[in-house]
Amino acid sequence: MNVVELSARASCNVELASLLPPDRTDLRETLGRYDDVRDRDLRGRDRRFLVESERCVRRFLRAQTFECESLLLTRRSFAAIADDVARHREIDAVFLADDDTMTTIAGYRLHGGALAIGRRGWRPPDAADLIARACAGSLPRLVVAEGVDHVDNLGSIVRSAACLGWSGLVLDERCADPLLRKTIRFSMGRVFEVPWGFSRDLRDALDRLRTGGVTVVGLELAPRAVPLSTIRVRGPIALVVGSEAHGISAETLARCDIVGAIPVAEPDGEARSLNVGVAAGIALYELSRPHSESA
Fold it and tell me: Which residue range is the domain that position 20 belongs to?
């Protein structure tokens, strides 16, 4: 692993190559990936993603679900996560810089003194294994997301699932990418701790879950919905949440064994609904309570 101290010569016209020691031009391309990294697409052919903030980078390194290519850190952050960094022998380089130099390189200040670039596979993870494990009982609580395409909402759902002990997340192809910079940040790095995967046919996935003995609960303001607090489920459960604009589709809702709703105040007679990230957090908590495991 290369640990490279960058010369603190931050300026609006900083050239990344000039920050490297004269004998480290071999690392020019690696460091160059941090140039205005917030606005660059690291997902395309490069198959890479960005992690920001010391806490998220630490969780990324500890989970070891994806390879880490390189890190750009302040000395303080490096000292805080050095043990976690040492476990990753695949890392090409660790660049050390002061906060101002980091900001100039990355193009923004909200990096928290720690940036990491990870490598992803050619294809996103497939949900088939999660579904099979849920049916076998080894993943007793799944979240199923249909069309949740806002990164903040998806990140919030992942964070709630991790904190409340849910086992995994099944996404349809319209959902946001869990490895987008903002999704990772909103999840506080929990996307590396909760197993997730994409399903090309969510209806088929739900049919397989039900056949495998998993109770599918939809979260929706629908005519057949019952108050969420009254739902009692024994055994494996899958909670389905829908898109921000349209909720759960009729086809998916028809495959839910139970539909639950969160009663909301309507003092002025106007229909109201909760943000899907907030609603999912409430539902995950409610269905995690001991009464949801008893008949």
Answer: 2-119
- C-alpha span between 214 and 137 (Å, rounded): 9
Three-state SS for 265? coil
Q: Residues 150-173, buried b or exposed e (16+ Cβ, 10 A)?
A: bbebbbbbbbbbbebebbbbbbbe
d(CA 214, CA 237): 5
Burial class (CB in 10 A: 0-12, 13-18, 19+), 271: exposed
State whether 135 and 113 are in the same domain: no
Question: Rounded to two decimals, what is the model's pTM?
Answer: 0.90
Structure tokens at 164: 């409340």
Last residue of a domain, one of 70, 99, 119: 119
Amino acid at 279: A
Left if phi > 0, otherwise alpha if psi is -120 to 50, otherwise beta: which for 283?
alpha
List per-block mean pLDDT (blocks of 10 residues) for the chain, which spans 295 residues: 74 69 84 81 75 96 95 95 94 92 84 93 91 94 97 97 96 95 95 96 97 97 91 94 93 96 75 86 92 45
From the list 130, 156, 163, 153, the residue with the least C-alpha distance to 236 is: 130
Question: pLDDT value at position 36?
Answer: 83
